[in-house]
Design goal:
Oligomer: single chain
Distance between the termini: 118 Å
Radius of gyration: 35 Å
CATH topology of the largest domain: Rossmann fold
Number of strands: 19
Organism: Marasmius oreades
Protein name: Mitochondrial chaperone BCS1
Number of helices: 17
Pfam families: AAA (PF00004), AAA_lid_BCS1 (PF25426), BCS1_N (PF08740)
Subcellular location: Mitochondrion inner membrane
Strand order of the largest sheet: 8-7-10-11-14-9-15
Low-confidence stretches: 1-19, 157-172, 340-363, 435-468, 545-612, 624-630
Bound molecules: adenosine-5'-triphosphate
CATH architecture of the largest domain: 3-Layer(aba) Sandwich
Catalytic activity: ATP + H2O = ADP + phosphate + H(+)
Number of domains: 5
CATH superfamily of the largest domain: P-loop containing nucleotide triphosphate hydrolases
Helix content: 25-40%
CATH class of the largest domain: Alpha Beta
């Protein structure tokens, strides 16, 4: 039997072409030999070509099999940056030490922003100004709880919807982490996520985590674009009337503990608080301290941000996890102000369909009342969260917002009382809270501190601390009493008093001696500010009487226009959205934003732009036809 198609030792190994046995095996060797002659270079090239083809086919087949295997026996989870679960996973992976195999890092300057990077030195080292965040750009394998996991991260890009390696829709604007688990048990994934979350909560304990939305983003899952951390503040550092802060904490804790009770009775598990009062009275500080005490994260939104409208608010609110605080600061900016009607731009704000953005030069919120109510307790609201709102002007809020179910507790803050001033004084100059002294450890208190600044050792700390501290505290209390009795109750905010005390750090006697002068100076400054404000208002009113009132040229047409005041030419240099901003002081951009150029805010500038002549619906120039001159 002719076996030459199986092996040809002489022509393969002898020439070093041991692998050329493959084409021989498939019977092509003799075919090529016949075609090209066995010693021809063409013969060898043809063999190489076939070999390459076979190897490539084999490789693809192998890949295909791996892919089938992956599809059959694994699942992939996607974590988008901006979603809280992304934070849990990144922190968890960093803690697991997975970064050790990473060769790619992003370097961030250290600041209050949390990136879950790796420190190269122990915490507190002076030369620790940057941290190194593993990027996981290259897939990495790791084992968790006996299962194999593969991790891969891909970058997002603003405005593009990039394809990801698993064919899923990827986040626009942030990175995305994909975790493939080689198991089909969903429980493995949920256990992993839960584990990551608990680890994250544990690590975050010393801080309060605050999520904010700083940039416009159109991705549904990417509203909270920024994460910051603040050192937890002790409840005792908030000086309010007795029992107030404790009652808020108790109320919030009860709410969190009673989810079943709410569900069992069919009552939505939501609770809303409104903290209102003058600026600098401790509203925000209360919320941060509460969050630290209960271990909750804060999702804080400012309705005055230009990009926050109803739809953004809805998206942002719906991505807040349970057991968190949803905070809206200065909620009043979503409501009209009493003096709005008097402002020169008022008529612009009343145009149907045009968001109320500016009033008297002040940016207003694009959020509507119904949009706001919807996220607080409408279909767009989620259960299990504490809702907090702060305002300096409760009177501006719509009663609909204040009804129970939306706002369940209203807490009033006021300017500092005398007992508050005394407590603040004590907080400032009291020796720091007792330090747990380890045996043999020396504690050096800086020499600039009040009299307690002695060297304390483990052996003698009790004697020194007790005697000296008591004496010091007694005299401090006396100083606090004289300080507070000089303060006019209800005239200054706690923040203002704090600002003054900061100028007398470690000098309680100086604070007492200087406080009257400081108050006198403050009163003088206030009086001057008030006078400046009155002049500004008067000027604005005078200007307003000569400004145009009417309807806004929206959608490309001026519907009607009416003039009040003394302008000889009645026209308005407001551009319709499709016309560039005119040369006057008021203009509109293509997205309906009103632009108000204060520099040019002179009625002379409100003459018609040569480039734009307002016309009515039939195309007749309003300058000549309908405009009335007074
Ligand atoms: N009652 C208070 N107890 C302790 N510190 C206070 C108190 N009120 C104000 N402060 C201090 O004043 C500063 C400003 O306080 P905070 O931001 O909480 O005031 P606010 O009422 O929220 O002001 P705004 O209405 O302007 O937002 C903080 O540094 C805080 O420590």
């Amino acid at each position: 039997m002719d076996k030459s198609w199986i092996r040809d030792d002489t022509s393969s190994e002898a020439n070093g072409w041991w692998w050329s046995g493959i084409p021989q095996f498939v019977g092509l060797s003799s075919l090529f030999a016949t075609l090209f002659g066995s010693s021809s270079p063409m013969f060898n090239s043809a063999k190489l070509l076939v070999l390459g083809f076979i190897i490539e086919t084999g490789r693809r087949l192998f890949q295909w099999l791996i892919e089938r295997f992956r599809l059959q026996y694994s699942m992939t989870a996607q974590f988008d940056e901006g979603d809280p679960s992304y934070e849990w996973v990144v922190q968890f992976l960093t803690k697991q030490g997975l970064w050790r195999r990473t060769r790619e890092f992003r370097v961030n300057a250290r600041n209050s922003q949390r990136k879950w990077g790796i420190r190269t030195r122990p915490e507190g080292t002076v030369k620790d100004n940057a941290e190194y965040v593993p990027t996981y750009e290259v897939p990495q394998l790791f084992r968790w709880n006996g299962y194999w996991f593969e991790i891969k991260r891909s970058k997002g890009a603003l405005g593009i919807q990039p394809m990801n390696p698993y064919g899923m829709h990827q986040s626009v604007g942030g990175g995305t982490i994909f975790i493939t688990i080689y198991s089909l048990k969903m429980a493995v994934l949920s256990d992993f996520v839960e584990d990551a979350r608990s680890s994250y909560l544990e690590v975050s304990k010393p801080d309060v985590i605050i999520h904010t939305a700083d940039t416009p983003n159109f991705n549904p899952s990417f509203a909270w674009s920024n994460v910051k951390r603040k050192v937890r503040r002790r409840l005792s550092s908030i000086i309010l009337q007795e029992g107030v802060i404790e009652s808020i904490v108790k109320d919030a804790q009860e709410f969190l503990d009673m989810e079943d009770w709410y569900v069992g009775r069919g009552i939505p598990h939501r609770r809303g608080y409104l903290l209102y009062g003058p600026p600098g009275s401790g509203k925000s500080s209360t919320i941060y301290a509460l969050a630290g005490e209960l271990g909750l994260e804060i999702y804080s939104l400012s309705l005055a941000s230009g990009f926050v409208d109803d739809s953004f608010l809805q998206r942002a609110a719906s991505s807040i996890p349970k057991r968190s605080i949803f905070l809206i600061e200065d909620i009043d900016c979503a409501f009209p102000r009493d003096d709005d009607a008097e402002t020169p731009l008022d008529f612009l704000a009343n145009i149907p369909g045009l968001p109320r953005r500016y009033s008297n030069g002040i940016r207003r919120s694009a959020v509507t009342l119904s949009g706001l109510l919807n996220v607080i307790d409408g279909v767009g609201s989620d259960d299990g969260r504490l809702f907090f709102a702060t305002t300096n002007y409760i009177d501006r809020l719509d009663p609909a917002l204040l009804r129970p179910g939306r706002i369940d507790r209203k807490i009033q803050y006021s300017l500092a009382t005398q007992p508050q001033a005394a407590a603040l004084f004590m907080r400032f100059f009291e020796p720091p809270a007792p330090v747990t002294i380890q045996p043999k450890l020396m504690l050096e208190v800086p020499s600039t501190s009040p009299p307690i600044s002695v060297m304390v050792t483990a052996e003698n700390s009790d004697d020194i601390g007790a005697n000296h501290g008591d004496k010091y505290n007694t005299s401090l209390r006396q100083l606090a009493d004289s300080f507070s009795s000089s303060i006019a109750p209800g005239e200054f905010s706690t923040a203002e008093l704090q600002g003054f005390l900061l100028s007398c750090k470690n000098q309680p006697e100086k604070a007492v001696a200087d406080v009257s002068d400081w108050m006198a100076q403050e009163r003088k400054d206030r009086q001057e500010r008030k006078e400046r404000e009155e002049v500004r208002k008067r000027k604005a009113q005078e200007k307003q009487s000569s400004l145009l009132k009417g309807q806004y040229a929206y959608g490309g047409q001026v519907k009607a226009m009416q003039v009040t005041g003394s302008l000889p030419v009645a026209s308005l240099t407001v551009s319709p959205p499709d016309v560039p901003i005119s040369d006057g002081s008021i203009g509109a951009t293509a997205n309906g934003d009103i632009q108000h150029d204060k520099e040019k805010d002179d009625h002379q500038e409100l003459l018609p732009s040569p480039a734009y002549e307002p016309r009515d619906e039939s195309g007749v120039s309003l300058n000549s036809e309908k405009v009335v001159s007074t």
